[in-house]
Amino acid sequence: MAISALEHPVLDSMRTGGALGARVTAMLAEIAALLEQVAAGGEAGQIELCGPACSKQTRAQLLQALGPGEVLIRLNADGESTIRETSVQGVWWNEHTDRYGNLLAAFLEVARVPAILPVDSEQLRRGAERLRADLQTVSKYVD
């Protein structure tokens, strides 16, 4: 049985890019441990991708090793935040830039859902209030 790159991006990245660096290998082991922790009901975790221990080359190797997923989320708020699912379920690649495109933060989030996405009860209430106000305005013009 052949191994599919879609199923095993780490192996595919080794075939196309050579051996993984020691830092990338250690990060992949840390990701696996975090996934097991979350699966067992533990807290989500993050791995910093902007510090001195994580060069652009390391980030590129890690991104290739994790492979692309199916979900891409872009948020615009005084800059852009991009959250990309990797091919490893539960591993999210997060990047935040300022309004000029300068990278402010980059990290991997190991979680069921990225922390920035869920809305709290107050946000839900504000959404309901807004829709009700809009419905009142619209009802004036509906037969």
Beta fraction: 15-25%
CATH homologous superfamily (4th level) name: HupH hydrogenase expression protein, C-terminal domain
From the spread of the alpha carbons, the general shape counts as elongated
Number of domains: 1
CATH architectural arrangement: 2-Layer Sandwich
- The string of secondary-structure elements, in order, is HHEHEEEEH
Helices, by number, come to 4
Mean pLDDT across all amino acids: 87
Predict the CATH topology: Ribosomal Protein S8, Chain: A, domain 1
Biggest sheet, strands in spatial order?
A: 1-5-4-3-2
End-to-end distance, in Å? 65 Å
> How would you characterize the largest beta sheet?
5 strands, antiparallel
CATH class: Alpha Beta
Helix content: 25-40%
Instruction: Report the count of strand segments.
Output: 5
Model description:
By secondary structure, the protein is of the alpha+beta class. It has a single domain, classed as Ribosomal Protein S8, Chain: A, domain 1. 40% of the residues lie in helices and 24% in strands. The protein is built from 4 helices and 5 strands. The chain has helices at residues 9-17, 22-39, 56-66, 121-139; strands at 45-48, 68-76, 80-86, 91-97, 103-110. Helix 2 (22-39) packs across helix 3 (56-66). The longest helix is centred in the last third of the chain and has 19 residues, at 121-139. The chain is elongated, with a radius of gyration of 20 Å.
